Structures are given as C-alpha cells and as structure tokens.
C-alpha cells in the first residue's frame, strides 16, 4: 500500500514486477514536501519528494492597498502588497512584477516577490488625487486606486484675482475677489 502526504495523489496500492520492484507515480497541485510511505505486511519505509510551484502559470493573485491617503509631497508613500501564485495558489518567490502608476505618481518599475510570494509596492506623488496602480506578471494584472492628499502644511496663496471692481459704495453692492490656495506642488 502507498500513502502520500501534503495533498499529493498516488495509487493506494501497487503490484511489484517479477524482479520485486515497482515504480510509484505521485502527483500534486500543492508545492512543498510530501512524505510518501510504502508498506507491505508490517514493513514500511518513507521518503520525501518535493513539488515546486509552476512559474509558467504565474499570476497576480491579490493586490491590496495597505497604506492610503498619503500626503502628495513626493516623499510620503502609499503602499500596496501584491501576491503572486501559480494556477493552483502556490506562492511564487523571485517573480518580477511590473508596476505602473497613473496621474503622475512615482514607483519602482519592477519589484521582486519574497519567499511567501508577496512584495510591497511603494508609491509617491506630488499630485493630489487618485492614482491607478497596476501590477502585472505574465499576462495577469490587477489594478487598485490610491489617493494622495494635498499637503496642507505647505498651503500658499497661488492667485488673488479681483473679479468685480468699482461697485457703487451703497453698503450692499460688493466688490469681489477670488483666491486660489495650493500646496507647494
């Protein structure tokens, strides 16, 4: 009889050839070590076999915003965490993920996944508003929005325009001005 661990699949029993040997075939959709135990009568032996994740099916499994609403000062970052797996959900380490950032935001063009298949993406901007961040590997991509807020600590008067002048001094009719306040960027 044959037992396979860690989700591996094998025939439950095999029959030996005339020379006393038999080849045991084991498959799995789960990357990692599987313990294979062959038993006959009261005798058994176990060996480990290793299955590796299928890099040919690498895909963006998840893209999560972990820090949002950063100040648009060009230094404070919004962050996202991307996870890359194969078609069966096995984490893929060492995968190069391409990153695009919209609306003038800045990020590294590529990041590389860690042993758990994840990597953090850091994004900065000097432009307040929404930036679309897209992570891609192979033909798989996901996008998320992050928001940058104006840097109120650098608020300044950008424009002061007289929009209505020379009104009658009757205590009711007003001269008007329009002010535009911006941050340093």
Please summarize what this structure is.
The protein contains no helices and 16 strands. With 185 residues, it is mainly β. It has three domains: 2-51, no CATH class; 55-149, Immunoglobulins (Immunoglobulin-like), CATH 2.60.40; 152-182, no CATH class.
Write the layout of secondary structure elements.
Layout lengths: L1 E3 L4 E2 L15 E2 L4 E9 L2 E9 L7 E9 L2 E2 L6 E8 L10 E6 L4 E2 L2 E3 L5 E7 L4 E9 L2 E10 L6 E9 L11 E7 L3
Parallel strand pairs: 7-14
Antiparallel strand pairs: 1-4, 2-3, 4-5, 6-8, 8-12, 9-11, 9-13, 10-12, 13-14, 15-16
Report on this model:
This protein is an all-beta fold. It folds into three domains: 2-51, no CATH class; 55-149, Sandwich (Immunoglobulin-like); 152-182, no CATH class. It has no helices and 16 strands. It has strands spanning 2-4, 9-10, 26-27, 32-40, 43-51, 59-67, 70-71, 78-85, 96-101, 106-107, 110-112, 118-124, 129-137, 140-149, 156-164, 176-182. The strands form five sheets. The protein has a five-stranded mixed beta sheet with strand order 7-14-13-9-11, with no helix packed on it. Strands 6-8-12-10 form a four-stranded antiparallel beta sheet, with no helix packed on it. Strands 1-4-5 form a three-stranded antiparallel beta sheet, with no helix packed on it. The chain is rod-shaped. This is Big-1 domain-containing protein. Residues 1-52, 60-149, 157-185 form the Big-1 domain. It comes from Escherichia coli. InterPro entries: Big_1_dom, Ig-like_fold, Intimin-Invasin_domain, Invasin/intimin_cell_adhesion. Belongs to the intimin/invasin family.
